[in-house]
Amino acid sequence: MLTLITTPIGNLNDMAPRSITAIEQADLLACEDTRHTQKLLMLLGIKTNAQLISYHDHNGQAMRPRILKALEKGLKVGLVSDAGTPLISDPGYKLVKDVQEAGFPITATAGACAPILALILSGLPTDRFLFHGFMPDKQKAATALLEECRHITVTSVFFISPSHLNANLALIHNIWGDRDVALIREITKLHEEVIRLPVSELITFLEDKPRPKGEFVLVVGPPLKKNDYTDDDIAQLLSQRLAELSLKDAVAEVAALTGKPRKMVYQMALSVNKSP
User: Fold this and answer.
1) Using 50, 70 and 90 to split pLDDT, how confident is the model at 150?
2) Is 65 exposed, middle or buried (0-12, 13-18, 19+ CB in 10 A)?
3) How large is the angle between the packed helices 262-274 and 247-258, nearest 10 degrees?
4) Which of 7, 123, 176, 228 has its Cα between 20 and 30 A from that of 256?
């Protein structure tokens, strides 16, 4: 059997007893980083006779046959990520697929998962959401992702780099408009922090502060409801869309998004177009 073993994302008390048992009983542990796993086992006082091997995106193709051979011999194999739930922005998807196709059973231990914890801490709608993984570092790729998902109507969750935080917030504001966001830092750790503001206010809030440190998850709320759009919101949307679209297309898109009469949006677009 292959067991996907969840580990803490910060607070060691989040290590579940079932995860400890899975490690203790494993014959082979495939680790994202063996040094990190060895340190975790030492801190938690977990003893195991399992062989630790490295398994990550760069060596996965070579290591998967070895893991399958171990399963064929009847060995118990565990997949351990550095932190959190395996496969969630961590390697493992291809291994699970190959193990399933080979007919071996797979189970998983429950535990900490940063996107889910951020979502429930955010105060934003949790009934439907989309996890995007890491926001791309390069502005062109980040812009393409946000443009692709501009019309989704559910809460979005991103892993985000502190060094690109301000630039990414500006992109979200420019492309998605002024949505409510929650910036969650150092989840489960000593300095855990949740900042929830409209994205425009969060940008202003962070302007004069030193670059924040730690690991961040950004939760972005769904678009405003159609009846929630003010004239200023519509003018801002028009300004953004007119920078990329013709007057006709910009008016059609903003009218559809806000639910406002097209004639009214057209008149506002004319005013926006004349602004310096």
Assistant:
1) confident
2) exposed
3) 130
4) 123
